[in-house]
Amino acid sequence: MKIFAEHDNRFEGLELKTGLFLLLAAFLIGAGILAALVRQGVFTQTTHLHFVANSAQGIGKGMAVQLFGFKIGAVDALNLEPDGTVRVGLLVQTEYLRLINQDSTARIAKEGLIGASLIEIVPGPAPSRPVAENGVLKYERATDFSSVAEELSAQLRPILADLKQFAESANRPDGDVRVALGNFRRFTGEMSEAAKRTAKLADNADRQLSGVLAKADKAVGKVDATFDKASATMDNLGSALAGLDRKLPELLLKLDRTLANVEAASAAAAEDLPPALRDARVLAKEGRTIVDGAKHSWPINTMLAEPREQALPLGSFDGVASPTP
Amino acid sequence: MASRARPRSASLAALGIGLALAGCAASPPPPSRLSEEALGFNQRAAQAYERGDLAKARPLYERALEIDASIDSIEGIAVNSLSLARVDQALGDADAAHRHLDRVLETAAAAGWRAEAAARKAQLYLAGGDAARADEWVGRAQTLCGTCRAQAAILNLGARIALARGQPALALQRAERALQLPASDDARAERANAQRILGEAKIAQQRHASPTIGSPPAAVR
Known about the structure:
The structure holds 2 protein chains of 2 kinds. By secondary structure, chain A is an alpha/beta fold. Helices cover 56% and strands 15% of the residues of chain A. Chain A has a 7-stranded mixed barrel with strand order 1-4-3-2-6-5-7. At the A-B interface, loops of A face helix 2, helix 4, helix 6, helix 8 and helix 10 of B.
């Protein structure tokens, strides 16, 4: 080695360099192994849970266990029990155990429509204590794509059968579809004719409406003229009312004075009238007495006929019709 | 003397004339309150009759008759009985009409009122188809009437009865007598009735002379 070092100085301290290289490599390998172990959860505290399923179909060892979409563990054991059920062991991180209560349910789900299968833990709605170590979860098999497809297929099958029958009917010349189409074609033809007639009618109505509108315009013009006249009349009335308004207080004052005079005259008449009436009554009575006396006195009594009772006059045709010999 | 006696006789004459005038100036006895009441009922009954309200006129005449009977007013009894007979005649109650007329005829009422009563009885008999008794009663009416106010009506009634008995000549004679009476406003209606009866009597005479006159032809019958 010295020989090489004498001829090339790059070989100086070769042993030291090689030792450092090997030590670094060993460190990197160890770090990688450690990282792999950490990643494998070797250093994470885990807890065992399990549930009982009817079948192990779709469930595999190492299948991820998720809670609220986060991976918290994996399936670590699948055992067929003597009663024919399957015991599925789950290994979940202990730190998430507080989120899994005793009413939680484990079910098989898929990441997306056609993604990998996984075990999803759904906590129960009612608040309860967290599940204990080696606790048992309820299990339900979620609807997967295949079962959905089967249900869909079962529902679509009669529809497809009907469509097939409809297509066969449509292909037959005497089928209901062909007949209905023929009727619809005739109906559309008639509708076309009706639309033409309607358009013609609308044209006529439009012309008549134009005439009516022209007359209405004239009428509105007359109404405007009438309103103008009415406005002028109202103006005159307004001016008359204004004049009346000016004269009214004076008239009211005059009326008030007149009423006062009438009231005074009435008061005076109320005092004077009853005696006057009494006097007039006495005067009339005395006048009648005087007249009666004069009527029975000579020579007036010879000029006046004494009222006497009268018999109904006799008529030759009283009571009977003219005789017919 | 003669000059003193003239004024004395003139004074006596003036006294006599004054006494006579005083006697003339004396008021006649005023009508009693009952007479005035009867007069009022009679006038109201006449007004009801003129309106054609016979149902109202009848009790009013009856009330006037009761009052006149209570005061023995012969004229009032006759007047209201005659009027009641006319109302009953118009109402178709001939028996009641006869009773009222008999009452008039039984009283000592003026001949003119009794003549009208007899004439109304003749009308009632004529309306009842008894022309012979009607003729008898119209004869009594003519006798009682003389120149009473119903003279023309009684003559015309007699003419109608003569026509009814088939005596157109007698009817003509009586109707012409009615026409010859002095014209007055009261007799105007009876003058018209007389003309009508004359026409009917002449037609009847011609029919008697020629039976085909006034009758439709045999072919039409």
